[in-house]
Specification:
The complex is a heterodimer.
Chain A lengths: L1 H14 L29 E5 L9 H16 L15 E5 L12 E6 L8 E10 L5 E9 L4 E3 L12 E3 H12 L40 H4 L10 H6 L5 H10 L15 E3 L4 E3 L4 H22 L1
Parallel strand pairs in A: 1-2, 1-3, 3-5, 6-7
Antiparallel strand pairs in A: 4-5, 8-9
Helix pairs in contact in A: 2-3, 2-7
Chain B lengths: L1 H14 L8 E3 L3 H7 L2 E14 L6 E14 L7 E7 L1 E3 L2 E5 L10 E7 L5 E2 L6 E7 L4 E4 L7 E4 L5 E3 L6 E2 H12 L2
Parallel strand pairs in B: 1-11
Antiparallel strand pairs in B: 2-3, 2-7, 3-4, 5-6, 7-8, 7-9, 9-10, 10-13, 11-12
The chains are: A alpha/beta, B alpha+beta.
């Protein structure tokens, strides 16, 4: 009887994460100066180097996965409003095998297949931002295809039992970082590169973010795409879809406005010893991006029908 | 009580994560860290300096450390080693790279290092164990590793969050590492 009660209770609670959850809270990345990170106009275009992708999937499949990850953020909806965010996340293929990472106003998505900074790292995301204002200028995502393999868990769930990672789910999560979101839980000990400890962040409601190691974290935290990790093959695939909290973040940080136009980042930056300032070079690219993402979104909607 | 534990276990199974972070790093146990490191030292951080690389595209941070003890590799006492890693801030620009270890001048740490000319920390944040003086216990303690973004593989090959090796006395930690170095 006791066992039966336990089983029923467990199954009942286990069903909870599958129910729609109300939006609760999200966490933003902040700079060393305490400024929340954000794009001035949220139209990041990721240039996806697909010249010679890893052999596990073909280039169109990788591209479709990355574009779908961008569409997930671009189509954020909340409180019954279909698209409540100005985020226009575009992924465009470029023929490079792997472009250079760095602060050049070109956001890159790259497979590293010849070597990787650390053989135990699966992916590294670098975000360039202005310390005082938090304006994000550039973001690059390097995927370790030298030491790891990547695949599509939705099409091939059997891959979950192998050394393969779900590419689309992971990229969706990383794109959350690209638009300035942090994890929904806190990892004590984390610090800025120069040694200054990162203080425990607060969520959008001003509440301290709980430790990731807490085992009683509520489902609104663990079910978010921006949670530090996921629980099962299905959950890993679910990273691809935003939780209400993720959508709320996109919609509140970048609320939809009627006459919104994508513009390049405004912030100039100083290169110490480099002889002056560099300025944005991607204005036209980002305007084209707006058109491209609408085409992608239209394609996705049509497929769903 | 056992029922509650059963529920907790079931829920933990359902909710405990596997991964997807800013930077994802596979967990290394102490034996793997020791095997992968070319040099293992106890050192004090002398300075940290961030600058743009020659291309002007990337910020890197140079960390200068002074060796106090060498546990593995050819390292002279008081030798200076330079660690270089991506990320840092210069002027008003900040390059955030999740998962990199952090260093502060004056800080003491056990470091598992790869690379000879310029070093890097093995397994990103896992290869750094800060060392502090425990006034109550009157001994040096190697802290748990900064463990952001560290994951491990379970028996099915899936990635799970990896528990960090807990804080331990420096003497005990030294013995454990040296035992692993010996064949």
């Amino acid at each position: 009887m006791k066992t039966r009660s336990v089983l029923i209770l467990t199954l009942a609670v286990a069903g909870l994460p599958t129910l729609p959850l109300p939006a609760a809270a999200y966490v933003r990345t902040v700079t060393e100066a305490g400024a929340p990170s954000a794009w001035k106009t949220p139209c990041p275009t990721m240039e996806f180097s697909l010249g010679a992708p890893p052999p596990e999937m073909d280039a169109p499949s990788y591209l479709a996965a990355a574009q779908a990850a961008g569409v997930a953020w671009s189509q954020a909806s909340m409180n019954g409003i279909d698209r409540c965010s100005n985020v226009i996340f575009t992924v465009v293929p470029v023929p490079d095998v792997a472009g250079p990472v760095g602060m050049d106003y070109h956001n890159r998505l790259i497979f590293r297949q010849d070597s990787f900074y650390d053989p135990y790292a699966l992916a590294i995301t670098s975000v360039f931002q202005l310390k005082n204002s938090g304006e994000i200028l550039d973001a690059d995502l390097e995927v370790n295809a030298y030491n790891f393999t990547w695949g599509d868990f939705a099409a091939h769930p059997e891959l979950f039992q192998t050394n393969t990672q779900d590419f689309q789910g992971t990229v969706t999560h990383e794109f959350g970082h690209v638009i300035g979101l942090d994890h929904t839980c806190y990892e004590p000990g984390a610090a800025f590169a120069d040694g200054k400890p990162i203080p425990r962040p607060t969520d959008n409601l001003g509440n301290p973010v709980p430790d990731c190691s807490d085992y009683d974290l509520p489902a609104v935290i663990t079910g978010a795409t921006m949670y530090v990790s996921v629980a099962s093959p299905a959950a890993e695939v679910e990273l691809r879809s935003l939780s209400p909290d993720d959508a709320q973040a996109a919609c509140e940080i970048y609320p939809v406005t009627p006459d919104f136009v994508c513009l390049p980042p405004s912030g100039a930056y100083e290169v110490a010893g480099g002889g002056g300032c560099s300025y944005p070079a991607g204005a036209r690219r980002d305007s084209i991006a707006c058109v491209l993402v609408l085409l992608v979104m239209a394609t996705v909607v049509r497929r769903r029908r | 009580m056992s029922s509650l534990r059963s529920v907790a276990l079931c829920l933990a199974t359902l909710l405990v994560p596997s991964l997807a972070v800013g930077s994802l790093v596979q967990a290394l146990d102490l034996a793997q860290l020791t095997a992968q490191a070319e040099r293992i030292v106890v050192a004090q951080v002398v300075s940290t300096k961030s600058d743009w690389d020659p291309s002007g595209r990337t910020i890197r941070t140079r960390i200068e450390i002074k060796v106090e003890e060498a546990w593995k590799g050819s390292v002279a006492p008081a030798e200076t080693i330079v660690i270089v890693q991506p990320g840092g801030s210069v002027g008003n620009v900040e390059m955030r790279v999740h998962g990199m270890p952090s260093f502060a001048p004056g800080e003491k740490a056990v470091l598992f290092l790869a690379g000879q000319t310029t070093a890097r920390v093995v397994g990103m944040s896992q290869g750094k164990r800060s060392v502090r003086w425990d006034d109550m216990a009157r001994r040096w303690v190697a802290e748990a590793a900064e463990h952001s973004a560290v994951v491990r593989r379970d028996s099915q090959g899936r990635l799970q969050p990896a528990p960090s090796d807990p804080a331990t006395g420096l003497d005990e930690f030294r013995q454990r590492v040296r035992a692993l170095i010996r064949p």
